[in-house]
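Thread title: Can someone regenerate the structure for this chain?

I was given the following input by a collaborator and told the matching structure tokens would be attached. They weren't. Posting the sequence so someone can regenerate them.
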Amino acid sequence: MTTQAESLTKTASAPVVSRVRPSLGSRIASGVGGGAVRVFLLLVGLFWLVPTIGLLLSSLRAPEDMSASGWWKVFSEPSQLTVDSYQKLLENGDITGSLLNTVLITVPATLLVVGIGSLAGYAFAWMEFPGRDWWFLAVVGLLVVPVQVALIPIAELFGKIGIFGSIVGVVLFHVGFGLPFAVFLLRNFFAEIPRELLEAARLDGASELRLFARVVMPLGAPAIASLAIFQFLWVWNDMLVALVFSDSGSQPITVALQTQVRQFGNNIDVLAPGAFISMVIPLAVFFAFQRQFVSGVMAGAVK
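Best answer:
Regenerated them for you:
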């Protein structure tokens, strides 16, 4: 009798497992990581690459072939592929000179924004000085100032000091408008560094400059790399600022290609390889620092 009672008690106390059918949304969510979705995303990626592939194949075709048929013709006639357009590009002094000007504009503008922004971000995050929070709010407020508002006033200022139409003027404009975002990004990243780590370095006798170089900069490398990539891409692909502040001797590749279209509408044998080179260089920079870029974007997402 006791054994039967104990078995009934165990049976009553055992958890009842009910098989609940998952909802339609749950089943769809569980199937998102399946092979069909991966194939779909791969097809979407290939679709987005079609313009790039078309530009590359167009740059490898002769002008008469481009005027006769589309770039997809090379799949049936591979003999159309040639590098003559790139040879003509290297012989075009306007394009090659503008490509050098683009490098001379983009590299200093990126380095100055990263360097000054890092120092200012560290100062706003960990140094005490009068009006620090108000100064930082002023820097954040500059983020909403559109570039178009400052074009004419700064052009007049550069004209008075004699740098309008030069590479220096274009670089200074990009640095001025790139610093607010750089300071805002790096200050928020540097503020997440543990205070104890900085205090330990100060107790060991490290100065603020040494602390910044030996502790803050290595820890902030992901955010700094992300900022450098953003700034490089913005400056390299810019045409509005370069169109206003540069002249024929300092124009970058974007303005040079636009000038070629305006003057020689059928000069496609120069435009296609020039446009592809202008596009592939920032892509190469992005993929070279892709790991640091992802680390900087994800920094602070998980604590």
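The radius of gyration is 29 Å.
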